[in-house]
Amino acid sequence: MPDFIAYAGIIASIWIIAGVYIASLFYPNYSHSRQFCSELGAAGSATQKLSPLINNYPLGFLFILCGYYLISTYTENTATVAIGIMVIIHGLSTWICGFFPMDADPYTTTPTIPCQVHSWSGVVMLLSFIIAPAIAVFSDTYPTAIRVFSFICLLGCFYFSYQLSVSFKERTNPGTHQRLSYGFQILWLFVYSAFMIA
Q: Domain range for residue 10?
């Protein structure tokens, strides 16, 4: 198996940070604190076509490669195989989110069908990377350090997801809380991937 596949999770974790930043450079007056990452690919935005090309599509591919690596390398470890499946689901949902753009206005009361598909795929993305570290937390096949770290990442994700819902209702800085919530999930993937290839 090519070494590249083993590092797919680590590459994806770095790629998403760079990709969002690069795409934002082509979006006039984009605010990382007030706007969602998905607004870079929103319908009618300056980066509607660019953002999925440098974010969703390559990231989805990397997530799927990471999941494939986990499943094919640790076939006898049920917990790792289950985590690999969750990572693949995350990758497929990332593709769907890229193909179906959200509406330009995240506060619209009548979202379009593509936006609804985008939103539900986003929910699946969130859940897949909640279930994955939760599996690690409750599996005794992993060392205590990984289990504790996974639990901390889950707490961080839950806390900032709650803060995201509050800031979204108050229309303050949901972008910051979205990045921190997803950031804990991506941090978990980075450390978990590094552990699995160490």
A: 3-197
Phi-psi group of 29: left, alpha or beta (phi > 0 → left; psi -120 to 50 → alpha; rest → beta): left
**Separation CA 154–CA 151 (nearest Å):** 5
How many separate domains does the chain show? Answer: 1
Residue carrying the six token digits 């070494």? 3
Q: Please check whether residue 134 is in contact with residue 153, taking contact to mean a CB–CB distance below 8 angstroms.
A: no
Q: Which amino acid is residue 42, in one-letter code?
A: A
Q: Is the pLDDT of residue 3 over 80?
A: no
Digit-coded pLDDT (tens) for 156-166: 999 999 999 99
Q: How many residues does the chain have?
A: 198
178 contact partners, CB below 8 Å, separation of at least 6: 36, 37, 160, 164
CB 100, CB 162: distance < 8 Å: no
* Whole-number Å distance between alpha carbons of 26 and 46: 7
Q: Is 5 left (phi over 0), alpha (psi -120 to 50) or beta?
A: alpha
Question: Per the confidence metrics, is the pTM higher than 0.85?
Answer: yes
